[in-house]
Specification:
461 residues, Gyrase A, domain 2, Four Helix Bundle (Hemerythrin (Met), subunit A), Rossmann fold, 3 domains, seven-stranded mixed sheet, six-stranded mixed sheet, 16 helices, 13 strands, 47% helix, 18% strand
Length: 461
């Protein structure tokens, strides 16, 4: 498969030590060769693969020096895209890197689309679709565990498992074909039913194992949507600041200071939290505060974890008790804050209202109880689980949806076998399961979906 030559800036825009302009395609080296003047005068086309060379980038029209650069030459197929790749290392300034890119584009390259380098790696067979998606997971990873999980998927851990399951289904389909072609042999039919049942159960069990990791995998990939709730002035913004370890939220003694939802990412014991500090939920005549309260109620519905904050130095109010009803049935940790002040709260009543929810006491002013809270969060979602590097986690929403569909179809196939449905009918469900699993790794996927997935990548990757 041949493509035109693409180019893009592959490092973040802004001031820095270096920036990289990457080219990929059949003309990548000749285009760079037009622009590059090495100190020794040697042509890039004569250079050995996987070498780097110092020199200057020259304006082909005026002969003037554009930039001082280091140019890396990597010849296909031993490259990320399996095409010839050139990386021009220049000074990391916005003007500098844009100037280099413009000269590259003027001399025959096309500006790459978002994710087009990774898309070429997929289309050229270097990686499958699940590995390509893991590239962006690696870039966006917010914790070590998330990064390890993405690395495992990039190395093909999920791909190998999916391919093995598809091979099992192919073996079943081959036996079904034998049964259909030679119906006069009763022993073949009996063997086919028995093998079909065993193999289908095996595939179903393996899909179930993958889905059991999906909740934790999705949390590692996307972060745990964590909402801090409580009535005004109980310490919600102080809790946000303690977890983030920065003064992101305004903290005062005036109730109702937080008027909107404040969002921050934080790493808690390897669990990425998307922290949402909400406006205190109470009845209010203040129009702005009331809008904030309504937004708080909305984010509550979409939360994975609730941190319900109470005031140790106040009696429980009707508003406090109503919040326990609001979060009923949700993963919640109850935080009783301000233990540095005299106790007014009825802790026995708190325990009764909390039921099975974990209760943590804190004095955020004195930085007490935060470690216990972090341990409680990690234990709630990852208690007894293996590290991301020790098993295959499924984290991508698209993969999870396809696995659920595959599970449903394979269960229909098993049910068909058990009630004596003709094998050629059961074959349809098996083929559909094989196709759905293939969509995960890109063996059976529509071109429009591929375009949509890679459009979400950053430019230059």
């Amino acid at each position: 498969m041949e493509f035109d030559t693409i180019a893009a800036i592959s490092t973040p825009m802004g001031e820095g030590a270096i920036a990289i302009v990457r080219l990929s395609g059949e003309d990548a080296i000749p285009i760079a060769d037009k622009l590059f003047k090495s100190i020794g005068g040697k042509k890039l086309t004569k250079m050995a693969s996987h070498t780097i060379h110092y020199g200057h980038l020259i304006d082909t029209k005026t002969g003037q020096v554009v930039e001082e650069v280091m140019v890396s030459i990597m010849k296909g197929p031993k490259t990320f895209t399996k095409e010839d790749v050139v990386e021009i290392n220049c000074h990391g300034g916005i003007v500098s890197v844009n100037r280099v890119l413009q000269h590259v584009l003027k001399n025959g390259a096309r500006l790459a689309e978002p994710g087009e380098f990774t898309k070429r790696a997929f289309l050229n067979g270097r990686i499958d679709l699940s590995q390509a998606e893991a590239v962006m997971d690696l870039i966006r990873a917010k914790t070590d565990r998330a990064m390890n999980m993405a690395l495992g998927q990039m190395e093909g851990r999920l791909s190998k498992l999916i391919r093995r399951l598809r091979q099992e289904i192919l073996e079943i389909l081959a036996h079904v074909e034998v049964n259909i072609d030679y119906p006069e042999y009763d022993d073949v039919e009996e063997m086919t039913h028995k093998m079909l049942n065993e193999k289908a159960h095996f595939v179903r069990d393996e899909i179930n194992k993958l889905l059991q990791t999906s909740q934790q995998g999705k949390i590692l990939r996307e972060g745990l949507s964590t909402v801090i709730v409580g009535r005004p002035n109980v310490g919600k913004s102080s809790l946000l600041n303690s977890l983030v370890q920065e003064n992101k939220a305004i903290v005062t003694d005036i109730p109702g200071t937080t008027r909107d939802v404040i969002e921050e990412y934080v790493n808690v014991r390897g669990v990425p939290l998307r922290l949402l500090d909400t406006a205190g939920i109470r009845e209010t005549e203040d129009i702005v505060e009331r809008i904030g309260v309504e937004r708080s109620r909305q984010v509550l519905k979409e939360a994975d974890l609730i941190l319900l904050v109470l005031n140790y130095s106040d009696m429980l109010t009707v508003e406090d008790e109503n919040l326990f009803e609001v979060v009923r049935g949700m993963d919640t940790i109850v935080i009783v804050n301000k233990t540095d002040l005299p106790r007014q709260i009825d802790m026995e009543r708190v325990k009764l209202l909390a039921k099975d929810h974990k209760i943590v006491t804190t004095s955020l002013l004195e930085d007490q109880g935060v470690d216990e809270l972090e341990e409680a969060i990690a234990a709630l979602f990852f208690a007894g689980s293996l590290e991301a590097g020790d098993m295959t986690y499924v984290s991508n929403s698209r993969h999870i949806a396809l696995l659920h569909q595959s599970l449903q179809v394979i269960e229909e196939a098993i049910e068909g076998v058990e009630i004596g449905t003709p094998i050629d009918i059961v074959q349809i469900d098996l083929t559909r399961t094989w196709e759905l699993l293939g969509e995960i790794i890109g063996d059976s996927v529509h071109e429009s979906l591929i375009d949509q997935l890679f459009s979400q990548f950053c430019l230059g990757k």
